[in-house]
Structure formats: C-alpha cells, structure tokens
Amino acid sequence: MESPVIHVAAGVCLRERRILITRRSPKMSAPGLWEFPGGKVEPGESPREALIRELKEELCLAAAPGVKLGESRIPFRSGHLRMECFHVALEKTEEPVLLEHDGMSWITTEDFGAYHWGPADVPLVEDPAFIERVKRLLLEEGKKI
C-alpha cells in the first residue's frame, strides 16, 4: 500500500521587488514558523486552483498563479507532504489581510536565512536553483516599476 500524500500549493507572491511570507498562528499546525502562503489541494482541484482559493480565503488576495518555481517533498505523519510553489504577481494596490496567520513580512531572497521556515519551505529556501529563479523574477519585476 502506498503511503498517503498531502498535496499543497504555495505562492511566491511578489510586489515591488519583495516576496510576501506569512507566519503560522497558534491555531495552526507548526505555529510561529514562516511560509510561502498557500494550502492544501482539495480533491478535484489543480494546484493552481487551490492556490487561488487559499490566497483568497486566508489573505483576501486575488491571485493568478504563473510559472511553477519549485517543489518540495518531506516526510509527514505516516506519509509525505508534496508542496508545489508558483510565482504570483500581486497588484501594487492589493494588501493582504491576515485571516489565518498572525504575521507577514515582505522580504528578499537575501532575507531567507533570517526566518524559521516551515518544514516544507526549508528545501526550497535552501535550494540555489529555486533562489535563482526567484531572483530572476524579482529582477524582471523591477524592470516594470
């Protein structure tokens, strides 16, 4: 029998050359840890559809997920958790509203090491290829400003 998989979608939400990260609240699992916002993919949903729903439900953000930036796979309970991470460009006027999390920060890739990340995010923020993809997106976004 194959071990259960929990499938999660997360967004590298960019605005004005910064990346939105959120801190898990005490009412969530892994409280106090930072993450790229997102959530569980429900049956019948694609990862992008799940990300659109989760960003709306948790942060009141209208999202249009773009290119996939990376994926992590970690042991979780009696199976594993698979997280797919997508680029999300946010409008300059759009402000996140924290409905589930208890903190947020706008950071750069150079700030990744200053935060205590959730287990599924760690493989991504420590992956040089993922970091380079995010840096390229930030550079491209900077050209639009």
Would you give an account of this structure?
The protein has helices at residues 47-59, 122-125, 128-144; strands at 5-15, 18-23, 34-35, 38-40, 65-76, 79-89, 103-107. By secondary structure, the protein is α+β, with helices and mostly antiparallel strands. Strands 1, 2, 3, 4, 5, 6 and 7 form a 7-stranded mixed sheet that branches. The chain starts with a strand and ends with a helix. The relative contact order is 0.26.
Give me the number of helical elements: 3
Distance between the termini: 52 Å
Describe the main β-sheet briefly: 7 strands, mixed
The succession of helices and strands, N to C, reads: EEEEHEEEHH
- Estimate the global geometry from the Cα principal axes: globular
By helix and strand content, what is the structural category? alpha+beta
Give the low-pLDDT segments. none
What fraction of the residues are assigned to beta strands by DSSP?
25-35%
Helix content: 10-25%
Number of strands: 7
Mean pLDDT: 92
Alpha-carbon Rg, integer: 14 Å
Task: Provide key terms for this protein.
145 residues; 23% helix; seven-stranded mixed beta sheet; 7 strands; alpha+beta; 3 helices
Give a topology summary.
Elements: E1 5-15, E2 18-23, E3 34-35, E4 38-40, H1 47-59, E5 65-76, E6 79-89, E7 103-107, H2 122-125, H3 128-144
Parallel strand pairs: 1-6
Antiparallel strand pairs: 1-2, 1-4, 2-3, 2-7, 5-6
Summarize the structure.
This protein is α+β, with helices and mostly antiparallel strands and 145 residues long. 23% of the residues lie in helices and 34% in strands. Strand 5 and strand 6 (79-89) form a beta hairpin.
